[in-house]
Each structure stands twice: as C-alpha cells, then as structure tokens.
Design a protein that fits this description.
single chain, 206 residues, alpha/beta, Rossmann fold, five-stranded parallel sheet, 7 strands, globular, oxidoreductase, NAD(P)H dehydrogenase
Amino acid sequence: MNIVIIFDHPYGASASDNVPNHRSYSAALLAAVMRGLTTKGHKIDLIDLYTDGFNPVMSAEDLASWRQKKTNDPLISDYQQRLIAANHIVFLFPIWWESMPALTKGFLDKVFVKGIIYKESKPGRPFISLLPNIKGVTLLTVMSTPDFIYRWIFGNPITKILFRGTFRKMGIRRNLRWYNYTGMEDRSLETRMLYLEKTEQRFARL
C-alpha cells in the first residue's frame, strides 16, 4: 500500500534519537511506524510539515482560492495529489491544549479543499470523499494529560475533530484507529522502548 504519513513536531522527523534538548517521542514513534511499514514492503510517503516549511495560516488569497475550489500554493497542490494517491493516511503529532498543533490544523484547513479532496452532495448533507484509494486512517498522539481524563472528562476532543468532524463527515467511516501515548516523559526508558516495539509490530501487521 501507499502510506502517507503527516508528521507535525517542531524538531522534525530527525529527532528520534535520545538526545537531550532535541528529542521527541513523536519522532521516535514515527521511526517505529516506518520500520514496521518497511517490514511489509509498503511505500512510505512522509510529509514532515515543519521540515517542509508549511505555513498553516489561511490568508485572504488562500481563502479566495479555497472558495473557487482551487489552491494557489504549489506545496498544497503537492500535498493534495499525494493524499489522492494514498491507500492509508497516518497522522502523528503531540497533543497541545487538548488538541492538534497549529500545522496539522492548518493542513486540514488549507489542504482539504472542497472540489479537490471532498465535495458536497447537498447543502447541510454529509460530504463525499474525493480520495478514491483510501482504506483507512490512523492517528497517533503523544500527550501529558492522563488518558482517563482526556477520554472521560474532556471527551476525546482530538477524535471528534479528526475522525467525526473530518473523515466521517467526508464519508470515510471504516478503519479509523487512534493510538494514544500518555505521560511518556515520566516513564522509564525500558517502558518507552517497549511502546516503540509494540508500535513497530502493529504497523508491520497493517
């Protein structure tokens, strides 16, 4: 399968090593995901938003293009074509203030253009996906908030935004999976490594 990974962390994908002041558990998870996918021979298409210099701000010109069902940014056009070719999409980012970082939100705002990524059937009705090859979407998140608080008190805001409010709204309802890694900064190195091994094995089975 053609797996498109959207990765969002300021340190970029290269921060997977345990180097003080420049290490990211999100990047370590990304490396584990890619090792697992490589084992099965999947094609990996990595979108590293910070490394790409992606601008998440929707300008007046961007919005005017969006309303005309087009884009004026070559990077966004490239992202759109890569999503259209994808069989599976993986999002990987830390949770900040109980939601996604700015670059991922901007990715949804600017890349998911009506008429290119989805279309409307009738006003007020669910959208129709224009991603013809998609078989599933996987979300991996890293957060400090305890899992039970995020799920039962805050009500899983990230899945409401990304799954219910985006992909299910577009008609993609099957194979939407979320794996959450909470409190990793307080866990032992052995425990963190164990989670990475489990992640690699999980994606080797994709």
